């Protein structure tokens, strides 16, 4: 009976790993989009130049927290 219960949990673990991988990929895409938007704003003169860290990286902790909450 325990073996059946464990066997039923294996697909759930795989789905959870896939969900986490998809969320990490989505986070990377949002970071890339933020970096592109910052560079466009800078090139248009809408945003003053910032230190090397950049505004896109400033948003990274908030995005990481949002991912952790999912």
How would you describe this protein?
The chain contains 3 helices and no strands. With 70 residues, it is mainly alpha-helical. α1 packs antiparallel against α3. It has a domain at 23-70.
Brief rundown of the structure:
The chain is mainly alpha-helical and 70 residues long. It is built from 3 helices and no strands. It is 81% helix and 0% strand.
Provide the succession of SSEs.
HHH
Structural class: mainly alpha
Distance between the termini: 32 Å
How confident overall, as mean pLDDT? 76
Give Rg in angstroms: 19 Å
Biggest sheet descriptor: none
Residue ranges: pLDDT <50 for 5 or more in a row? none
Strand content: under 5%
Helix content: over 70%
Number of helices: 3
Could you outline the blueprint of secondary structure elements for this entry?
Blueprint: H1 2-43, H2 54-58, H3 60-69
Helix pairs in contact: 1-3
């Amino acid at each position: 009976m325990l073996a059946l219960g464990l066997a039923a949990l294996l697909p759930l673990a795989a789905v959870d790993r896939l969900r986490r991988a998809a969320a990490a990929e989505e986070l990377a895409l949002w970071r890339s989009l933020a970096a592109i938007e910052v560079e466009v704003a800078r090139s248009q003169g809408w945003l003053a130049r910032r230190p090397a860290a950049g505004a896109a990286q400033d948003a990274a902790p908030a995005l990481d927290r949002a991912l952790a909450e999912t």
